[in-house]
Design a protein that fits this description.
The chain is of the alpha/beta class and about 230 residues long. The protein has 8 helices and 6 strands. A 6-stranded parallel sheet has the order 3-4-2-1-5-6, sandwiched between helices.
Length: about 230
Amino acid sequence: MGFKEQIDINRLPEHIAIIMDGNGRWAKNQGKFRVFGHESGVLSVKDIVEGCVDIGIKYLTVYAFSTENWNRPIDEVNALMELLISTINNEAETLNKNNVRLNAIGDIKSLPQKCIDDLANVMEITDKNTKCTLTLALSYSAKWEIIEATKKLAQQVVEQKIKLEDINEDSFNAQLTTAQLPEPELMIRTSGEHRVSNFLLWQIAYTELYFTETLWPDFRREHLFEAIVDY
């Protein structure tokens, strides 16, 4: 029996978050440049999105580009940005076919303008889709997000729109980039690393963490189903 057949549909996580790690190591193992690993990793994203649609996962959030990634060699960053642009444009039709809505979180304005424009375009094209919401975390840092939310609330207090005692979990949640998403019940990290790397720190307070040795370009829906069975 495959892992898909073992899944209890009544106990599915509504929201799964994934730290897609291991592209560079995978490419090195193949004797290729790191960007080759990123290109292969796109195929994994496609398969996992379709796997989520297949079994009825409502929300999938993937850590596509952290703020720390800006510190990588300029050639790799540029190649990643070009890959991001081409992937977003190429996948619009597939997202619509699978009834998937594209969403993005992070410091989006720090991305190249072409990325921002293409993202906005595909988000608009897929906005009415209802089967699954795919959220790309781009130029994302959980610490940045928490600081930004704190600034917004402080500004509201200064402007006397709210009182200090009005600040609570709900009002803080409302200022986060994930305000429209439920908190993830399951977070998966590939490549054998056991850390959360500044991803959704506020949102994963009660999330189950699942670590696998599989490198991201080798991760497919059967691995996803295995993680859900474990959950």
